[in-house]
Amino acid sequence: MAEPAGLRGPVLIVGAGLLGTSLGLALRHLGIPVWLRDVSPENLRTALGLGAGQLAPDIAPPPQLIVVAVPPDVIGETLRWALTHHQKAVVTDVGSIKTGPLEQLRAYGLAGLARYVGGHPMAGSERSGPLAASAALFDGRPWAVTPHQDSTAVAVDLVLELVSVVGATPVRLSPDEHDRAVARTSHLPHLLASLVAGRLAEAPPGHLALSGQGVRDVTRVAAGDPELWQQIVTGNAPAVVHLLGEVRDQLDALIAAVSKGRRKELTEILAQGVAGTLAIPGKHGGPVKATASVFVSVPDRAGELARLFADAGDSGVNIEDVRIDHDPGRPTGLVELVVAADSGEHLLASLESRGWVTHR
Amino acid sequence: MAEPAGLRGPVLIVGAGLLGTSLGLALRHLGIPVWLRDVSPENLRTALGLGAGQLAPDIAPPPQLIVVAVPPDVIGETLRWALTHHQKAVVTDVGSIKTGPLEQLRAYGLAGLARYVGGHPMAGSERSGPLAASAALFDGRPWAVTPHQDSTAVAVDLVLELVSVVGATPVRLSPDEHDRAVARTSHLPHLLASLVAGRLAEAPPGHLALSGQGVRDVTRVAAGDPELWQQIVTGNAPAVVHLLGEVRDQLDALIAAVSKGRRKELTEILAQGVAGTLAIPGKHGGPVKATASVFVSVPDRAGELARLFADAGDSGVNIEDVRIDHDPGRPTGLVELVVAADSGEHLLASLESRGWVTHR
To answer: Which of B248, B255, B317 is nearest residue A241 as measured by Cβ atoms?
Structure first.
C-alpha cells in the first residue's frame, strides 16, 4: 500500500459488509480516521470490534470522503443522502453497476453531483459479511473508477488515491463503458454458467458420475447468492439484455449447425470461442504468456503437497498456476502445475528425478 | 494398478495418439504384450520409441483384445475392420460418443457384434499426440463402459478388467445413457463456454481489463481444439440438440425476466443454477463436502509456494484444492487454499502465526 498524499480522512464508510469493513481495515492500517455506519447493529458491532473504524463522534470535523458500500438496490438513495447531508465531502461507492445510481442522482437534480465519482473493486463477490473482511482484500485487484462528465478533478483524484493506497489497480472507464464491460466479463458468464448448472440439477441418476474438471470450472460461479446476483443483473438490465440477445442469435446458429450437420459453421463458432479465451489479459495484466502443464500424481494426505512444492521450488521454476483434481473413489490426486512454456521440460525432469509420477 | 486376471494379451491398439499410447504404456508396465497400429508413421514411430508396444509380428497369436483409439469420425469403420479381421478378439474403443458407432456396426449386420463393448475414459481431452502420453493418464479417472444388449458377459468382463488394471474407475452405462450424460456434463458446458468466450472476442478495447477469475473459469474449456470438438458434437447431435433446445427455452425466460424486471423469475433461474452446482459429485466421488477457503497473499517468486505448503502441511490440515490468482500488474499472487469446513479456522490461525497475510 502507498502512503496517502491528499487523503487524510476522516473517511465515512456507509455499509459494514465485506467490502466496507475490508476498506475500513485497510484505511485504519494506514492511520486514516474511519467512521462506520450500518443499518444492521450486528454488522456494525462486528466491524467496530474488528477495528475497521469507529462511530462518528457527536462533535466532529466533516468527512473528507464518503464511501457507500450498501446492497445494489439502495445505492442510489444512499448516495443522495451522502451528497445532501455532507456538503463538502467527495462521495464514491463500490457497487457493481454505475449508470443506474448516476441516473437516479441526476433525476434528483442535486447540486453536489460534481463531488460524486463511482467506483467498483473486482473483489470478494463469493463471500459476504464483515467477518470475511480483510485489509488485504483489494491488494492487486482491478478497481474501476468511473467519473461522470461533471465530476471535479479534485473528486476524481481523491478516489484514485483511495484505490491506490489500499493496494488496488485503478481502471478508469466511463460509467456506461463500465456497465457494458462487466455485463460481458461478469454478468453474462454468470448467467450462462447458471443455465448450464440448471441442466445438471435435472440430470438423471448416475449421469453426473461422468463429471470432469471442465463442467466444474464452467459452473463454479453459478454457486453465488441468487438474491445478490438478481439485484446486480436487474441493475444492469440494458447491457445484459443486449449481450443475451447476441448469445441467443449465436445459440440459434449453433443449434442449426449441429442439427443440420453443418460442420464448417460449427467449427467457426468453436474457433471464435478459442479467440475469446486468448483475448483475456494475462494473469499479470500483460499479454498472455505461453505456458506448459506438468501433471503429477500426489497421495491425498497432509504433507505431500508441501513435499511436491518444495521439490518444484528446488527446480528453480516459478509456478504460474495450480489445479488439484481429486480422483473419484481413490486416495490420490492429480496436481497440474502450470509453468512458463520453456520451463516445462526442466520441471518434468527435475520432479521425475525425485521419484514423482508425472506426465504432460 | 491391479494385477490382470483374465487379461493376458496380446492387446492390439489401433491409433497411437494420446489415449492409445498412454494405454500401451500402462499395459506394458503390467507386462502385457501390446501391438500398435497407426495410419501416421510418425505417431507410430514415436509410440514405439516410448515403449508403448511393438509392431505385430508376421506370425503371431491372435489378439485377445483390440482397443480402437482413432478420431471420432473414423471409429465406426475401424471397429468394423477389427471385428471382421479378428474373429476371436473382444473389441472396444475409447471414443467420446457411443451410440453412433454402434448404429454403424448394426447397419453393417456383423455377426461379431456381441464381441464389441464400448468404452470412454474421462481423460486427456486438452492435449493430444503420443508425446503427451503417460502410463498414469487413466489413474483414478472415471471410464465409462457401455455394453449393448447383445454384448457377451466375457467381452464386458474383459473390458471392465482393462479399465481396472490401468487404474481407472469403471462407470457402467448403456450407450444411449452415456451419450445423454456426456451431452450434459461435457458437450453442453463446452458449447456454452464457447458462446461466452465468443462475446469476449468482440469486446471493445479496455473492457477485458475487468476480467476476474470467474470469466477465466467459465471459458477455460473453450480453448479446446475446434476440429476435434466439431467431430465430438456432430457425433452426439441428437442429445446435444435436445439440451441446447432446453437452454434456448431457459434463455428466452431469462431474457424476459431481465428485460421486464421480473425479479422473482430471475432469482428462480439463478437458484436452479445453485442447485446444479450442488448436484455434481464430490471430488472424491462421494457426496459434496462442505469446504472453507483461506486466501493467502504470496510473493510471486520461486520457493514461496513451497514455503506456504510446508507451513500448511505443518498445520496438519489436508488441502482439498488450490487456486492461484495472480494480480494484474504486481508481483504478488493470491492463493486460495480449499480445506474441509471445520479446518478453516485452524489453518488460518496457523498460517497467520507464521507471518502469512491471510483472509477468508
So the answer is: B255
What domain range is A109 assigned to?
11-173
Query: For a pLDDT cut of 70, what percent of chain A falls above it?
Result: 91
Asked if B15 and B152 sit in the same domain, the reply is yes
Q: What is the pLDDT of residues A180-231, one digit of tens each?
A: 999 999 999 999 999 999 999 989 978 999 988 889 999 999 998 899 899 9
Residue B6 lies in a domain: no
**Residue A221 contacts B, CB cutoff 8 Å:** yes
Q: Please indicate, yes or no, whether residues B226 and B327 belong to a single structural domain of this protein.
A: no
Q: How far apart are CA A244 and CA B128, in angstroms?
A: 34
Last residue of a domain, one of A125, A158, A173: A173
Query: Do A193 and A319 lie in a common domain?
Result: no
B-chain residues near A214 (CB < 8 A): 125, 186, 189-190, 220-221
Does the predicted interface ipTM exceed a cut of 0.85? no
- CA B129 to chain A, closest CA, distance in angstroms equals 11
Which pLDDT band holds residue A300 (cuts at 50, 70, 90)?
low
Q: Is the pLDDT confidence value at B332 over 80?
A: no
Distance from CA of B85 to the nearest CA of A (A): 31
Q: Do B273 and A195 touch (CB under 8 A)?
A: yes
Taking the CA of residue A312 and the nearest CA in chain B, the distance in Å comes to 8
Residue at B169 is within a domain:
yes
Residue B209 lies in a domain: no
Residues B102 and B193 in one domain: no
CATH number of the domain that residue B325 is part of:
3.30.70.260
Residues B248 and B351 in one domain: no
Chain B nearest CA to A104, separation (Å):
17
Residues B184 and B169 in one domain: no
Q: Which residue has the higher pLDDT, B321 or B13?
A: B13
In a domain, B259, yes or no: yes
Which pLDDT score is estimated for A191? 98
Residues B162 and B303 in one domain: no
CB A34 within 8 A of CB A24: yes
State the cell numbers at B92: 472396444
Nearest CB to B142; choose among A210, A277, A316: A210
pLDDT 10s digits, A159-170: 999 999 999 989
- Determine the residue among A96, A126, A254, A354 to mutate to test chain B binding: the one whose Cβ has the most chain B Cβ atoms within 10 Å: A254
Question: Average pLDDT, whole number, for chain B?
Answer: 88
Look at chain A and report how many structural domains it folds into. Answer: 3
Q: Residue B88 sits in a domain of what CATH number?
A: 3.40.50.720
Judge if A33 and A89 occupy the same domain.
Answer: yes
